[in-house]
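User: quick one, sequence for these tokens?
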């Protein structure tokens, strides 16, 4: 059989670029054409029904049955008009991806015919066969049912001739089995706490929502090459492969011109995304070869997360048309930059004010400072929980290694705002300031336009970038709802405490503005240790952070402990976002996913090592042996085949190492598999099984360098990374 690598390379050379059809050069002509948004609701519903649904959405109130009936009927007419035949509840189980179960609109009638139907009940609730989704022990077999329920705050859309209805996913006993339920609860906690604090400054504010813009990094690889790498298609990353002679050292890929094939894919993907109402705005090359990024304009957070989940799915579908595979793995190639998902987050009021945007007047700035400093304090208090919310086996390759971003959560503010906070900290604001003028002197001038571009720090996991914070430690394949639930929750909790502290001072007779400033100053002092402006990747920072007492937990099983700590339990109990059972269930699911993924990687390494890599090495070795025998038989001296003998020996050495290490790894795996406790099992996999990956790979990659190129069966890094 011909070498599969060469078959794949042949396929790559014959690729043609599919034609991309763009509905109109004016994006506004087709933006959200496949979304049942307010505009379509208005068109398909009676005025009364339209008002009813808009009110319910805005107030977050349950939708009456008869109204659901009308909406369902309107949705069906609209969707069928656009060619949809099926509908599905679309939800986000704890597997990290999205799930669907399609039902046809059509129903047979007693007279042997059929009609198209979609009832209010079918819109409001579904019971998918949920028993195969992870529940972390929440669902026992006797209560295996799970329900999906309509989330009207995220509009329905059509994908692949199917009307998709965004839903939450809960167990029969009411516990969250998905990412959306806790997010919505955290957002409602934030809304309440933030509005309360807003009222110190502006009584007209009625609602605060978080906004989010997600920058998504990804790699592209040709589908034929992908299919020739079992490690890639089974685990999402390459478990073997010597570094390419050229990789990212010339730094010539970043913002460079986009290869034509990739450009066609991007245009196609963007068109489909725009039709689905995903406001994709930017695209560019990333640092590593074949690495790219796209980013939408920020949206209300629940929608932004749904859109990102939808986008990841969409990218994969569109890539097939272009003979590409999208790699969303956090670290598909060792030695080359990994991928993340920058989460740009801020809080915005119903009056349109961004609470993280410095204002024009000192009074506005006091409001800005309140939200700004409380966010810093929240992250300082719960840095370990935020770290836990982004922990995964994939992300350990970034957070645990000396790569962007580090496992230590720190906050970058930029020199201007750092100086402002330092000034407040050392100012003479104290209780009993009677003179207003004196108070306002206590608030330093904050420039409205921050010169953030000059001192943007790319090494910080949590950076302030002008009018928003940017969490950069989120993994590229992760559901952003996990860290965003935690971020909104801890900020909500912190704002609640802030209000309590400020009210206490006011009750004691302090003027409101003085009380606010006193607490802001106190929080600045208390949370100072988490602020860091220097190089987050440096060794000095690791040492410095240790002295400051900041957590630096490099591996997932231990990072996840933060979900169950006393401090977290108190936070969860006070805010009601996770019950104790839900927190334990999530902890369990994350640990399970961690060791199961390592288990799969270990198996793949064993199989590829023994069945693909060793045979190739032995083939070449045999060829060399034949050659040596031949040279000897015609009477040449050993001197003339010195090189061949040397290679034969080296190959033998690496073969033996690989075989021994794989056997030792299997032994460790067997031991680990016997462990009952998930945390212990995950740690055993991490500390005893995983170290063999590197050892085995080292010898395999050496063989790659020794063996005849025409005999090597796996596509090499240079072939995977440079798109033709
Ligand atoms: P970069 O960080 O690469 O310079 P941008 O500054 O353009 O990129 O913004 C990155 C993302 O941040 C975009 O999705 C953008 O819409 C989003 N963004 C901008 N302002 C806000 C905000 N107030 N809240 C949330 N996201 C925002
Ligand atoms: Mg950014």
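Assistant:
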């Amino acid at each position: 059989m011909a070498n599969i690598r060469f078959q794949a390379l042949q396929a790559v050379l014959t690729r043609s670029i599919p034609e991309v059809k763009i509905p109109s050069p004016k994006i506004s002509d087709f933006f959200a054409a496949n979304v049942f948004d307010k505009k379509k609701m208005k068109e398909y519903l009676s005025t009364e029904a339209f008002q009813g649904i808009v009110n319910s959405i805005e107030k977050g109130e349950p939708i009456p049955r008869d109204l659901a009936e009308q909406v369902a009927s309107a949705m069906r007419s609209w969707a069928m008009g656009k060619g949809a035949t099926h509908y599905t509840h679309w939800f986000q189980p704890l597997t990290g991806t999205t799930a669907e179960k399609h039902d046809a609109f059509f129903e047979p009638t007693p007279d042997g015919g059929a009609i198209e139907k979609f009832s209010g009940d079918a819109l409001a609730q579904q019971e998918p066969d949920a028993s195969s989704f992870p529940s972390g022990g929440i669902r026992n077999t006797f209560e295996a049912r799970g329900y999906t329920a309509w989330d009207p705050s995220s509009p329905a859309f059509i994908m692949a001739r199917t009307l998709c209805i965004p839903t939450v996913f809960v167990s029969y006993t009411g516990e969250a089995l998905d990412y959306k339920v806790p997010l919505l609860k955290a957002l409602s906690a934030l809304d309440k706490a933030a509005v309360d604090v807003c009222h110190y400054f502006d009584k007209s504010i009625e609602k605060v929502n978080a906004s989010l813009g997600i920058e998504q990094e990804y790699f592209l690889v040709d589908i034929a090459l992908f299919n020739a790498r079992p490690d890639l298609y089974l685990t999402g990353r390459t478990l073997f492969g010597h570094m390419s002679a050229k990789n990212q050292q010339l730094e010539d890929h970043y913002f460079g011109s986009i290869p034509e094939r990739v450009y066609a894919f991007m245009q196609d993907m963007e068109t489909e995304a725009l039709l689905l109402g995903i406001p994709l705005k930017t695209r560019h090359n990333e640092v590593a070869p074949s690495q790219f990024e796209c980013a939408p304009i920020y949206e209300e957070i629940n929608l932004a997360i749904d859109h990102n989940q939808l986008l990841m799915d969409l990218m994969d579908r569109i890539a097939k048309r272009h003979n590409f595979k999208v790699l969303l793995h956090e670290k598909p190639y060792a030695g080359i930059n990994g991928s993340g998902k920058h989460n740009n987050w801020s809080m915005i009021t119903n009056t349109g004010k961004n609470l993280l945007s410095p204002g024009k007047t000192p009074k506005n700035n006091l409001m800005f400072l309140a939200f700004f400093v409380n966010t810093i304090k929240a992250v300082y208090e719960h840095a370990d929980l935020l770290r836990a919310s982004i922990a995964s086996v994939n992300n350990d390759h970034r957070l645990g290694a000396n790569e962007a971003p580090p496992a230590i959560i720190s906050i970058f503010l930029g020199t201007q705002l750092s100086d402002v906070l330092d000034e407040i900290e050392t100012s003479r604001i104290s209780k009993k300031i009677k003179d207003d003028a004196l108070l306002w002197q206590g608030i330093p001038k904050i420039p409205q336009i921050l010169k953030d571009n000059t001192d943007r720090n790319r090494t910080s996991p949590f950076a302030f970038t002008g009018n928003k914070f940017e969490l950069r430690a989120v993994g590229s394949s992760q559901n952003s709802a996990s860290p965003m639930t935690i971020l909104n929750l801890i900020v909500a909790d912190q704002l609640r405490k802030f209000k309590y502290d400020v009210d206490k001072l006011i009750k004691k007779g302090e003027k409101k503005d003085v009380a606010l400033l006193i607490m802001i100053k106190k929080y600045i002092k208390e949370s100072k240790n988490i602020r860091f402006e220097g190089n987050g990747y440096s060794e000095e920072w690791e040492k410095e952070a240790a002295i400051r007492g900041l957590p630096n937990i490099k591996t997932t099983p231990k990072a996840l402990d933060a979900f169950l700590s006393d401090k977290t339990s108190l936070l969860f109990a006070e805010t009601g976002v996770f019950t104790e059972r839900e927190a334990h269930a999530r902890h369990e699911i994350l640990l399970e996913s961690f060791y199961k993924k390592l288990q799969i990687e270990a198996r793949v390494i064993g199989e590829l090592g023994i069945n693909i890599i060793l045979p190739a090495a032995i083939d070449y070795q045999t060829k060399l042996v034949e050659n040596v025998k031949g040279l000897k038989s015609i009477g040449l001296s050993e001197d003339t085949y010195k090189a061949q003998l040397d290679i034969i020996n080296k190959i033998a050495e690496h073969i033996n190492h690989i075989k021994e290490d794989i056997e030792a790894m299997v032994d460790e795996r067997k031991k680990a598999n016997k462990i009952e406790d998930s945390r212990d099992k995950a740690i055993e996999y991490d500390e005893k099984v995983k170290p063999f990956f590197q050892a085995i790979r080292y010898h395999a990659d050496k063989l790659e360098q020794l063996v005849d190129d025409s005999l090597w069966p796996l596509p090499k890094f240079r072939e995977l990374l440079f798109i033709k």
